[in-house]
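anyone seen this seq b4? input:
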Amino acid sequence: MKAKVYSIDGKELRTIELDDTVFNREVSNGTIYHAVNNELANRRVGTASTKTRGEVNYSNAKPYKQKGTGNARAGDKKSPIWTGGGTIFGPKPRDYSYRLPKKMKRLAMKSLLSLGVQDGRLVVVEDFTIESGKTRDLSAILKNFVTDESRTILIIGEDDELLRRAARNIPYLYVLSYNSLSAKELLYGRKLLVLEGAAKNLNTFYGEAEGQSK
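predicted toks r here
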């Protein structure tokens, strides 16, 4: 498929060939669901912890004698049914992360890129950098594509430290490299700006012919 390439001023320059298997395929909603869930699970810290009756710092003394009081039998005040006692089946530190099959993750990314094209959210922009590294220079470019400061994803080809520095103070902008995309950001981004060099790299990185070995 062919896509328009825009200048940093928002004007149409030329067209670029995009791989149909990456940008114009049938969207797999199931793989998108699993890819987003996987990313969220891998980000969980998992430090929640409660104390069992064996860990509570409380007296081990029997609160009252076994018989004759009319109360239920009680061995110590650390019992979960007592105020200040331990917790039954409470959370403990754990690792929530898990690995997603590589083919499923690749299909999810291609589906998300195709979904961006179908929804009209994906725009290919000529390669540029911010030589000054200043936020205001990058903001001036973004205003030609994003008018309401909605969640915007900028996909770059080669890593650009100056561009990333300029993007740090723009709260609605997320910069991703073509080879380390985020399913969550691609799904919720209202505008996907893909640099021309990154689009070519995506053709190769996720294309069917090259993708068999990755």
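The radius of gyration is 27 Å. The chain has two domains: 2-28+100-211, 45-95. kinda curious what u guys think
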